[in-house]
């Protein structure tokens, strides 16, 4: 008999899939096997198909057999033989054989369309020799929980039946409840479907329970969420099940579990399912269920009496999973190893309901052991680690009490630490906040696990960017552990070490040095000079000295530590390698980029040999080696190297790992340094979105990316926008870090620099002057950022028109730098270049040319002939040789420089284009104005293509083109050029930018030369007022404009006219 149609039957996708498979198979597919777990609705789907085929006159003979045993199948065939063929009912075996023989197609026989349904086939052996024959006129439909390979074969097609789709589950619940006059909110309907894993049998029984108990969906969901209740208590009694169902959802899988346990390797399927019932239903990594803890668990279940547990091999564990898979109790997909095992949540719930309290806690701790054993020390695979964290979360939800008995299980710490290691600092902080509450409540405030939780929380606060909060938390923890264990206990020392670390991170580098020194003295006294913890403290102390600005002292300390580490720990110990890494970094910071690169390269070779090329430490060394490659002048090579590293880090660590994002930061920066500032700005804008998504808006890395984005936007040609971005960033930095944090102070430096680039040297100078005492107070007068700000102040003075004051400031700064950094440090060489430049701007052109000639060989020796800074100094030397009167030598120098820049940087690099600009300008100043016009006209489209039409460099080329057109006699053409250029400069740079003021000056001058002396005088009157306000009344260009105002005013009054004052860049 065909089972009656279930109430609120859903015409889901499998209905159409089954019909299409049966109707579209022709003579090639004569059997359909519906396979799926208990409760998914296989029988109802088969009944719907069968009923439809009969009602639509699609079959002549229909046989439905409940195939629960071999005898039941034989009896069904015998009954069909009796009814269809009028076989003798006293001879059932003959009737059975006659019916199967009748199903065989026979030549010349009248076709008879038949359909045989074998419902709920339990054992494959039950149908051996009893499978209906292939026939072009017949079809066989089988439902079963099995999916063994033996069920497949020619002419048979599997149809996998799963749970309802969410929309089908919602439709079923809505319709079924409405049948009983119940109307529930849509969100509760959807939530109940999800809570029950969209299992059709569970949905039907839940509706019956809700109606019989007169409760709401929300009430039922609360009962279901109560883990103290068994699933059997949340379904109707056996005699009240809906739709003629024979078993409750809680009992529906028991027979399948028994059968799976009988399959090879025998007796392991049930304990494997118990272990899987504690973990994530959406995917358990395969190696977790095949590791030592899982194998020991399986062996214990196999033990009998007083015998030792029989050892279980990994192959047997895999066999247990395959047995469960064959019975549709799990989905086992080894080709997706991170989610190799999936289990329906109700199968898990029903399995856990069979545990005693002792079994439950023991299996929970075994699952925790299995997760810890399967957790990699180095989290290379992001997908795997996410799966492990999901499984840890599921386990905690199922058995949190067991994980704190008798103490906190290590998996709880491991899961939280994994969040921090993976860059999810905010999530790590939230995790450890809850973990601290639980350890305090369950174990007490003084328990070692509670103290460890507090330590992890403080560390997570630091990771999330709250360095000050982390320092406060470690300070509070230090008082507690000192009281409990004493000053010299290892726990106390470890907290002191962590406190020193976060002090450095919070900007108090000097305080970190003091703290590390005190800790080192205590560790040497308590542990001795050669203890690992003592040596580690020496490493941290030396690194903190580098961070505090004592680069030379820190490097010397690292160099002194290294042989002790090799002697005590060996050359390949992580602390030894870390010290070599720190020493290479210190060399680079001290200005010895060549030495730093060599040290990193040597370390990299050793790490690739010892750790492997994909180890995170190896990848970090590659990153820092590439950074020094860019710092040494090979920005284009750094771009290539960063791209290769980025591919490796994305493959090894995943796209959202902090190290991967750091490589994107380095790549973006190198793109800008290699001459692609627009590309750098675009890359940083894209990176910022990912930083905010991964880390949150207040994380240090996110804020650093905002700062870098502001910098490159300014370089692209929008310094006003950069200044605005820096100004918007500063309050966030002060709120997150505090006003004295290095990042806050360096951003103030960036804001001052952006104001200078935006054409406001007076404001920039004031900002540098305000910043300088704060830097000296926080870092000391000799720290690199303090010295850099003194340099910015000197430069702003020069740009504001006070060249002599800039010379004095740079001279004083150079005298201070020489004993601190030495004569060959790149910063020392840069200051010498700035001093020479403003020496020329102050009128001493010959002295400037001589100073650059003296500086050049030092740069070649220290940085190399092709370093960008070396090439820049060659450009300055050519300019000042020309300004000093040797125009021919200057032109020769520029021509040679242009060839070298094209060779080293490429023809489209901004510095190459700049060299072409200077060479064209010098050509005009030598008297070949027409040649200069031709050169600038040729340069303009290349500049527009590289920088864009609104970039200051493009505006400069257009201004020079107009200048030399005027000098070539085309005054009208020059005036037209300036008339077009002026509104664009005002729109792009602003009315008061120095470049705009220059264009306004020359436009007014040409207006006068074109015969409009009164118009020129009016423009100069406005210009003088603007210059006095922007540049100051004593600035040379203000004085020039005032002179031109007088000249054109007299000309307008009819008192003659002269050349006026021309302003050239």
Provide a descriptive summary of the structure in words.
The chain is mostly helical and about 1050 residues long. Among the domains are: about 15-160, Rossmann fold; about 165-245; about 590-700, Tetratricopeptide repeat domain (Serine Threonine Protein Phosphatase 5, Tetratricopeptide repeat); about 825-925, Tetratricopeptide repeat domain (Serine Threonine Protein Phosphatase 5, Tetratricopeptide repeat, Alpha Horseshoe); about 940-1065, Tetratricopeptide repeat domain (Serine Threonine Protein Phosphatase 5, Tetratricopeptide repeat, Alpha Horseshoe). The chain is about 70% helix and about 5% strand. It has 46 helices and 7 strands. The strands form 2 sheets. It has a 5-stranded parallel sheet, with helices on both faces. It has a two-stranded antiparallel ribbon with strand order 6-7. Strand 6 (about 330) and strand 7 form a beta hairpin. Helix 15 (about 380-400) packs antiparallel against helix 16 (about 410-420) and helix 38 (about 870-885) runs antiparallel to helix 39 (about 885-905). The chain is elongated, with a radius of gyration of 41 Å. It starts with 12 loop residues before the first helix and ends in a 13-residue tail after the last helix.
């Amino acid at each position: 008999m065909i089972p009656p149609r279930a109430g609120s039957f859903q015409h889901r996708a499998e209905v159409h899939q089954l019909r299409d498979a049966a109707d579209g198979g022709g003579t090639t597919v004569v059997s359909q096997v519906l396979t799926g777990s208990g409760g998914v609705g296989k029988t109802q789907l088969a009944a719907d198909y069968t009923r439809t085929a009969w009602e639509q006159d699609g079959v002549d003979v229909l046989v439905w057999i409940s195939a629960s045993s071999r005898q039941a199948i034989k009896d069904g065939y015998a009954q069909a033989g009796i009814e269809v063929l009028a076989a003798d009912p006293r001879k059932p075996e003959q009737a059975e054989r006659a019916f199967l023989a009748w199903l065989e197609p026979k030549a010349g026989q009248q076709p008879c369309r038949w359909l045989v349904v074998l419902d709920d086939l339990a054992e494959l052996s039950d149908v051996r020799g009893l499978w209906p024959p292939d026939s072009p006129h017949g079809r066989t439909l089988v439902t079963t929980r099995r999916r063994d390979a033996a069920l497949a074969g020619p002419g048979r097609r599997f149809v996998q039946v799963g749970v309802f789709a969410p929309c089908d589950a919602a439709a079923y619940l809505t319709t079924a409840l409405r049948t009983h006059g119940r109307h529930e909110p849509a969100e509760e309907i959807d939530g109940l479907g999800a809570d029950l894993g969209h299992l059709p049998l569970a949905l039907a029984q839940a509706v019956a329970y809700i109606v019989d108990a007169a409760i709401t969906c929300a009430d039922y969901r609360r009962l279901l969420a109560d883990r103290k209740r068994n699933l059997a208590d949340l379904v109707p009694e056996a005699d009240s099940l809906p739709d003629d169902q024979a078993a409750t959802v809680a009992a529906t899988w028991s027979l399948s579990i028994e059968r799976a346990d009988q399959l090879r390797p025998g007796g392991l399927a049930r304990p494997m399912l118990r272990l899987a019932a504690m973990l994530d239903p959406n995917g358990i990594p395969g190696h977790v269920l095949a590791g030592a803890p899982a194998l020991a668990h399986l062996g214990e279940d196999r033990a009998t009496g007083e015998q030792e547990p029989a050892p279980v091999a990994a192959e047997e564990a895999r066999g247990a999973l395959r047995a469960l898979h064959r019975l549709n109790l799990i989905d086992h997909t080894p080709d997706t190893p991170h989610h190799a095992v999936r289990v329906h949540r109700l199968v898990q719930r029903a399995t856990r309901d069979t545990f005693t309290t002792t079994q439950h806690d023991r299996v929970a701790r075994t699952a925790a052991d299995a997760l810890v054993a399967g957790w990699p020390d180095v989290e290379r695979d992001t997908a795997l680690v996410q799966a492990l964290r999901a499984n840890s979360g599921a386990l905690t939800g199922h058995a949190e009490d067991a994980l704190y008995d008798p103490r906190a299980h290590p998996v709880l710490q491991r899961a939280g630490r994994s969040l921090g290691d993976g860059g999810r600092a905010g999530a790590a902080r939230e995790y450890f906040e809850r973990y601290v509450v639980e350890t305090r409540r369950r174990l007490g405030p003084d328990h070692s696990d509670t103290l460890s939780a507090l330590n992890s929380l403080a560390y997570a606060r630091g990771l999330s960017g709250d360095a000050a909060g982390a320092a406060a938390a470690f300070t509070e923890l230090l008082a507690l552990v000192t009281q409990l264990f004493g000053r010299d206990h290892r726990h106390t020392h470890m907290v002191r070490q962590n406190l020193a670390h976060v002090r450095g991170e919070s900007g108090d580098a000097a305080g970190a040095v003091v703290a590390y020194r005190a800790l080192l003295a205590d560790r040497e006294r308590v542990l001795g000079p050669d203890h690992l913890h003592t040596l580690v403290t020496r490493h941290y102390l030396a690194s903190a000295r580098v961070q505090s600005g004592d680069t030379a002292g820190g490097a010397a300390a690292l160099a002194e530590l290294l042989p002790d580490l090799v002697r005590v720990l060996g050359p390949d110990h992580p602390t030894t390698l870390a010290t070599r890494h720190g020493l290479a970094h210190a060399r680079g910071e001290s200005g010895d980029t060549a030495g730093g690169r060599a040290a990193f390269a040597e370390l990299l070779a050793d790490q690739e040999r010892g750790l492997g090329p994909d180890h995170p430490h190896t990848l970090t060394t590659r990153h820092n080696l590439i950074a020094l490659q860019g710092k040494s002048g090979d920005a284009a090579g750094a771009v290539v190297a960063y791209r290769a590293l980025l591919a490796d880090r994305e493959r090894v660590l995943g796209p959202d790992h902090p190290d991967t994002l750091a490589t994107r930061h380095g790549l973006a920066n190198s793109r800008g340094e290699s001459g692609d500032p627009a590309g750098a700005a675009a890359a940083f804008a894209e990176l910022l979105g990912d930083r905010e998504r991964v880390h949150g808006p207040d994380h240090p890395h996110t804020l650093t990316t905002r700062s870098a984005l502001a910098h490159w936007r300014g370089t692209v040609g929008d310094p006003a926008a950069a200044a605005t971005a820096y100004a918007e960033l500063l309050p966030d930095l002060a709120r997150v870090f505090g006003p004295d944090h290095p990042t806050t102070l360096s951003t103030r430096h960036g804001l001052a620099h952006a104001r200078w680039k935006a054409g406001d040297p007076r404001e920039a100078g004031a900002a540098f002057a305000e910043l300088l005492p704060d830097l000296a107070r926080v870092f000391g007068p000799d720290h690199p950022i303090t010295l850099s700000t003194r340099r910015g102040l000197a430069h702003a003075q020069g740009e504001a028109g006070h060249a002599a004051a800039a010379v004095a400031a740079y001279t004083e700064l150079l005298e201070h730098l020489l004993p601190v950094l030495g004569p060959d440090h790149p910063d020392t060489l840069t200051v010498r270049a700035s001093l020479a430049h403003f020496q020329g701007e102050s009128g001493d052109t010959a002295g400037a040319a001589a100073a650059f000639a003296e500086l050049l060989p030092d740069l070649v020796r220290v940085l190399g002939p092709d370093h960008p800074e070396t090439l820049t100094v060659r450009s300055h030397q050519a300019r000042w040789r020309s300004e000093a009167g040797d125009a021919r030598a200057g032109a020769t120098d520029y021509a040679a420089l242009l060839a070298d820049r094209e060779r080293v940087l490429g023809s489209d690099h901004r510095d190459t284009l700049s060299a072409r600009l200077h060479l064209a300008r010098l050509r005009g100043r030598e008297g070949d104005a027409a040649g200069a016009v031709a050169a600038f006209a040729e340069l303009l489209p290349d500049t527009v293509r590289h920088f864009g039409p609104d970039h200051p460099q493009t505006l400069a080329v257009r201004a020079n083109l107009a200048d030399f057109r005027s000098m070539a006699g085309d005054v009208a053409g020059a005036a037209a050029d300036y008339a077009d250029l002026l509104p664009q400069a005002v729109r792009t740079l602003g009315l008061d930018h120095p470049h705009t003021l220059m264009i306004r000056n020359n436009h007014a001058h040409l207006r006068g030369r074109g015969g409009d002396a009164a118009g020129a005088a009016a423009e100069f009157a406005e210009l003088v007022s603007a210059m006095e306000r922007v540049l100051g009344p004593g600035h040379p260009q203000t004085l020039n404009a005032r002179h031109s105002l007088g000249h054109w005013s007299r000309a307008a009054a009819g008192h003659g006219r002269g050349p006026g004052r021309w302003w050239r860049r």
